Structure formats: structure tokens, C-alpha cells
């Protein structure tokens, strides 16, 4: 019964709101029946922030009372109780508190935006590797991404970071051995202190696996097969999520030897990601070729050319 009463009151209030929208001025009275004489009578409406506690008659005016805490009325009305203040939904925060004459206003919390198609707040989209943030998301709009322009890169997925300028090897007195792309920085070498080509490849391996997406089962198999100094296989690799798998690859790369890095393309190919493995091998070949070209050396070492 209480629910039906609330629906009735809400219908009245919405009807008044619609009338206000289509009228020049709102009537400040309403027609009722005098409980004493039984004749029609014009009663005063109650102002916003109040409700009609008792109707008028031929001998008394309308009795209006202030809305109690947690309730409101926004318009001149003759409803029997104030409307309950709204409650912000999932992933929303209060933008304006509810008062006696206005309901609360909500907006999406930090990191979320209102999606009209779903009528809910959704997390801002992250720009994938190779893309940067052109416009950050707001409470009303999603992130706007763009492909990193020539000379810039992004090696992470982010809802905040724009593309970063490729470093200049020549400014540091170095030679570039791998040209930067949209998803990785340039790789530089000191020709006076040459390293194995696989050592230079280390710089882009973490971002390589972020950019070249593959299903989680295949990525788990790759991590499980990574060679380690102790020869142990990480059993937990088959249970890790994407974030944990990429973190594991980053940790492995930091301590892996050149010989172990050189095994990586073949490991990727053997788990069924042939195209990705060949691309990784191509990157290594490019590095070795550019080291020989830019550092004026034809033969570097068996490890590098093997």
C-alpha cells in the first residue's frame, strides 16, 4: 500500500513538472472539495521544500510542512509526503547533496564515465600499446585515443599517458641499432662497448609481448618454458593472469643471459605462435645487422651471429 501511495505521489509530481515545462507560469492553487461544505474550493499549493500536511477548507488555508531530512520536493505541490532523496548508483559519487527543495545529483567517480547506451558508469577505456591518449576521459566522456605519430611511441596500455618521443641515439653519442616504432623506443648501442645482439633485444621484449597480444593459455605456456639459471620451471605460471604474466616476463628478461634470450623466438614458435615468434626473431636479426653496419664490424661473435 505504501508503495502504491509513493507511485501516486511521484506521478503527481511528474505531471506538475511536465505542466511547468509547457506553461509560462505555474498555478499556485489547486482544485479540491471542501470537507465542510462539500463544495469545490481552490487551495494553495505548497512551495518547494514542503509538502501538504492538511488540505484547505472554507475556514482554513492549506497546511504545509517542511520536508524532513532525507526527502525533498522540487516544485509547488499538493502531495501528502515529500519524495525520498535518491541514492547514487554503482561507480557513482555525490556531486550535489540532497536538500529539502532538490534531489541529490550524482556523477561517475574518478576513472569512470557515463555510458548512455548502458545507462551506467563504465571505466575509462585504456589506449592500447602503440596508441596514446589524445583526450583524457571525464565523468561524461570516455578516453579518446590516437595512433602514436611518427617519432613517438607508447609501450603500455593506459587511460592517461600520451605517446612519448623516441630517444635520439646521436645526441648521446650512440648509434641506433633498432629504429623506434609506435610501440617501442629506439634502441641504441655504444660502438666502443659492444654487447651481444640479444642484450639489446632485452630492451623491447616486455613491450613486445604487450603489443603482440595472444591468448592467455599460450602466454602461460611461454612463461612456463622460459629457461632459468637454475633450470626450474615456474609451476604457478599456468595460473597467472595477464598482468602477472607480463610482470614475470619483465623480471625474467632483467636477469636472463644472452643465450637464453636467443632461445625465446623458438620458444614462442613452439607454443604455436609462429608469426609472433618470427617477428621477434626478425627484431633480433635487425639489431645484429644494424650493429654490424653502424659500428663497422662484420663479425661480432658466435653468440651474436649464431
TrEMBL record:
Residues 1-18 form the signal peptide. TNFR-Cys repeats lie at residues 66-106, 107-145. Residues 66-106, 107-145 form the TNFR-Cys domain. Disulfide bonds join 67-82, 85-98, 88-106, 127-145. InterPro entries: Death_3_fish, TNFR/NGFR_Cys_rich_reg, TNFRSF_decoy_receptor. It is found in: Secreted. Keywords: Apoptosis, Disulfide bond, Glycoprotein, Repeat, Secreted, Signal. Its main location: secreted. The keyword Disulfide bond applies. PANTHER family: TUMOR NECROSIS FACTOR RECEPTOR SUPERFAMILY MEMBER (PTHR23097), TUMOR NECROSIS FACTOR RECEPTOR SUPERFAMILY MEMBER 6B (PTHR23097:SF116). This is TNFR-Cys domain-containing protein. It comes from Ataeniobius toweri. The lineage of its organism: Eukaryota, Metazoa, Chordata, Craniata, Vertebrata.
